Amino acid sequence: MFQLFLRARAHNLLGSRREDKGFKARSVERDAETDRVRIGAVLAAIETALQEAEREQVGLNRRVDDALARASVTFGNGTDEYLEREALDNYHQDLFAADISNGQRRLKELASTIAHLKFVKTAMLTRFPDFKPPQLNS
User: Fold this and answer.
1) Is 67 in contact with 131 (CB distance < 8 Å)?
2) Considering its fold, how many domains does the chain have in total?
C-alpha cells in the first residue's frame, strides 16, 4: 500500500512539472557569450602553450650556446691537441657533446611545436573572425 502511495505521488509530482514547463531556448546574447567563453578558453590554452614553448626555446638556446662555449675552451687550439689530450678532457668533451646534441635535438622539436601551435592559433582566429578577446582593464 505504501509503495502504491509513493508511486502515485511521484507520478503526480513529475506530471505537474512536465505540464508547467515547456521547452525554452536561451537568449541569443547568452548563447553568444557561452560561445565566446568557450573559444576564449581554447585560445588562452593555445597562447599559454605557445608562450611556454617559446620561453623554453630561449632558455635552452642560451644553455646550448653556453655548452658550446665551454666545449670550445676544453678543445684547445693546437693542431694535434686531440692526440695528446688527457683522459679527463676527453671525458668532458664527451659530456659536452652529449649535452649539445640533446639540446639541439630538443630545439628542433620546440621549433616544430611552436610552428604547429602558431598554425593552430591562426586556424582558430580564421574560423572565428568575430571573436574579440576580453580586454584587460589597465
Assistant:
1) no
2) 1
